[in-house]
Specification:
Layout lengths: L13 E3 L1 H4 L1 H12 L5 E5 L8 E7 L2 E7 L5 E5 L14 E3 L2 E3 L6 E3 L4 E3 L21 E5 L2 E5 L7 H5 L2 H8 L6 E11 L3 H5 L6 H4 L13 E6 L4 E6 L27 E6 L3 E6 L2 E11 L2 E11 L4 H14 L9 H12 L5 E3 L14 E2 L7 H11 L7
The structure holds FE2/S2 (inorganic) cluster (FES) and fe (ii) ion (FE2).
FE2/S2 (inorganic) cluster (FES) binds next to loops.
Pfam families: Rieske (PF00355), Ring_hydroxyl_A (PF00848)
GO molecular function: 2 iron, 2 sulfur cluster binding; dioxygenase activity; iron ion binding
Keywords: 2Fe-2S, Dioxygenase, Iron, Iron-sulfur, Metal-binding, NAD, Oxidoreductase
Length: about 400
């Protein structure tokens, strides 16, 4: 693999801004990260609950089709016909009994088998339909979250996740039995790493409305899980009493059982974030479009056992609290854009809060530290093959 010429600073808390804006860096990220030995969440099984339901998603350019077969099994396919490679399905989601490629009308079952193709007698002698199912990437799932990887060498999913799988389980309602409420889909004009570099430090400072939830004052912890760059948060949220900022405070009501962990965040390298703030269950499937754009699908869920009132509450809270127009998070979009503009300047982004020794990576972080992002940066540097400058 080509080695990139890039000067990585000596100090562990400095990230060269070049990595956010260089096209050749992005091309190497495609090889080593997105099409390399990492697992990427692409769907939750509850997004496609019925037989024949499907969803399409592009993982860093690779088109995927995730479908529930007529046997009830969820499978991930490459979204390309096994004949000449035409993109098979164009809808973002839907329900079909078969997938038909319009180019030469090859027909596939919801299990991915080729079940029909016109003019077969004139094909290469010995042609057999069973040799041409839809191709599949490696797939594994946990608590309903479907992951794919493009490499045969990637370690099994649970080994890559480590202990953060417990936080993920709690986040998806304890068992992953969810019900899709809807999506917000947005493209940010920023490098994918700026999108995932959101930190614990900024939350109460950038987001004025986060103060409604007492993020700063609450107890919480931030942790890393395995060496693969995953970050978790488990935090107390408490709705400020007697607050007068909102005319109708029911939007920030917490009906959940345990306010000491009113917020859980699971951020998996490279681009997946899942959050549960109050009663909002949100999985964010994200993919880079190129080196300066990232697309994020915010998917919102209820739990399968919720009564109608709880579903309504979650629906209302989801769209009002989170996402690109959410009360407590809308400022992120502006920062994603502005930091990408700012990254077209020389030098390094310098992390401060929580850094006690810039000659090493810490392994303990407070909820509001930005140093929690540095183990991820170290993992990134290693897999990208960038060498740290000597002292
Ligand atoms: S490319 Fe799909 S049928 Fe020919
Ligand atoms: Fe934020």
């Amino acid at each position: 693999m080509t080695k990139l010429d890039l000067d990585w600073p000596h100090n562990f808390n400095e990230i060269p801004k070049e990595v956010f804006v260089r096209k050749d860096v992005y091309d190497t990220e495609l090889q080593r990260i997105f099409h390399g030995e990492e697992w990427h969440p692409v769907c939750h099984e509850s997004e496609i609950p019925e037989r024949g339901d499907f969803k399409t998603f592009r993982l860093a350019g690779i088109p995927l089709l995730i479908a529930r077969g007529d046997d009830g099994v969820v499978r991930a396919f490459f979204n390309a016909c096994s004949h000449r490679g035409n993109q098979l399905e164009t809808a973002p989601m839907g329900n079909k009994q078969e997938f038909e490629c319009p180019y030469h009308r090859w027909l596939f079952s919801t299990r991915g088998d080729l079940v029909g193709c016109p003019n077969q007698r004139e094909f290469v002698p010995g042609f057999n339909r069973s040799d041409y199912p839809l191709a599949q990437p490696r797939m594994e799932s946990v608590y309903g979250v479907v992951f794919v990887t493009m490499s045969a060498r990637t370690e099994p999913l649970l080994e890559c996740l480590g202990s953060i799988v417990e936080t993920l389980r709690e986040l998806v309602g304890g068992d992953g039995r969810l019900k899709l409420l809807g999506y917000q889909k947005v493209r940010y004009n920023t490098n994918w790493k700026s999108y995932t570099d959101n930190d614990g430090y900024h939350a109460p400072l950038l987001h004025q409305a986060f103060n409604l939830l007492n993020w700063q004052g609450g107890k919480g912890r931030q942790f890393t899980s395995t060496k693969r760059g995953h970050i978790g948060f488990e935090s107390e949220l408490s709705v400020a009493r007697g607050d007068t900022m909102l005319e109708d405070p029911s939007i920030i009501e917490f009906k959940g059982q345990d306010p000491s962990v009113g917020s859980r965040i699971v951020s998996l390298f490279p681009t997946f974030v899942a959050t549960k703030h109050l009663d909002v269950i949100n999985l964010r499937f994200a993919t880079p479009i190129d080196h300066e754009r990232v697309e994020v699908h915010y998917a919102y869920f209820a739990h399968a056992d919720d009564d109608e009132e709880m579903v309504r509450h979650r629906l209302r809270q989801s769209s009002n609290l989170l996402g690109p127009s959410g009360l407590i998070s809308m400022e992120d979009a502006s920062i994603f854009h502005r930091i990408h503009i700012g990254n077209h300047t020389p030098g390094a982004a310098i992390f401060q809060k929580g850094v006690r020794d810039k000659e090493k990576i810490e392994d303990e972080f407070l909820q509001n530290d930005e140093s929690g992002n540095l183990p991820r940066w170290e993992y990134y540097r290693e897999i990208m093959g960038f060498e740290r400058r000597a002292a």
